[in-house]
Amino acid sequence: MKLLEERIRKDGKIKGGDVLKVDSFLNHQMDVELFARMGEEWARLYAGEGVNKILTIEASGIGIACVAAQAFRVPVVFAKKSKTKNIAGDVYTAQVESFTQGKRPYPIFVSKEFLHPGERVLLIDDFLANGNAALGAIELIDQAGAQLAGMGFIIEKAFQQGGGILRDRGIHIESLAMIDS
Ligand code: 5GP
């Protein structure tokens, strides 16, 4: 997506070799006009997929997932990283190896109330790097007996392994910008 690529070139900053910082429009301050364009783009790209729920992981996916959900006119569920009292009770859960938090694995949870058998779920997230967050989300969807309709990422770092792993599984992936190196 040209608009996004231009924005990354203009405002993105490289940190520590393989981390891209896009805090000025995505991960801290958020450009919701740009988010709206991205949501519309995914709605076009997944038009035939029968998406009826969007799933993301807190915290960085929530903003973009909500805006995308307006374009799809479907509800959003975000996986929580801690099992607070609010979601005490029956949950689906998986472990995710963190890319940005020193590689310490963390659990993710979704209440069984909010993912159901037969639902067509689109995962939306900010970055695709090694694919661990995405694999964790797949586990939640599988536990629920729901179907994965696809995965939309704002930025895919094509020099890391996630894209290959997920495409080998036949998943419909739409990354709106690819970083080669
Ligand atoms: P993965 O699980 O695919 O290895 O990493 C995905 C998660 O790590 C994303 O949800 C994102 O929060 C974070 N992440 C991975 N690479 C980057 C990066 O280059 N920049 C930022 N800001 N976050 C990243």
Question: What is shown here, in short?
Answer:
This protein has 181 residues and is of the alpha/beta class.
Describe what you observe in this structure:
With 181 residues, the chain is α/β, with parallel strands linked by helices. It has helices spanning 2-11, 23-27, 32-45, 62-72, 132-144, 162-168, and strands at 13-15, 19-21, 53-57, 76-79, 91-97, 105-111, 120-128, 147-157, 173-179. α3 packs across α4. 35% of the residues are buried. Residues 19-21, 27, 60, 99-100, 125-134, 157, 162 line the site of guanosine-5'-monophosphate.
- Gyration radius (Cα, Å) is 15 Å
The 3D shape can be described as globular
Number of continuous helical runs: 6
Q: What does the average pLDDT come to?
A: 95
Please state how the strands of the largest beta sheet are arranged side by side: 4-3-7-8-9
Proportion of residues in helical segments: 25-40%
Q: Helix/strand/pairing class, anyone? A: alpha/beta
**H/E series:** HEEHHEHEEEEHEHE
Sheet-strand content, in percent, reads 25-35%
Question: Based on DSSP secondary structure assignment, what is the total number of beta strands?
Answer: 9
Largest sheet: 5 strands, parallel
The parts where pLDDT drops under 50 for at least 5 residues are: none
Q: Which molecules are bound in this entry?
A: guanosine-5'-monophosphate
Please give the alpha-carbon distance between the first and last residues.
18 Å
Spell out the key features of this protein.
five-stranded parallel beta sheet, 33% helix, alpha/beta, two-stranded antiparallel ribbon, binds guanosine-5'-monophosphate
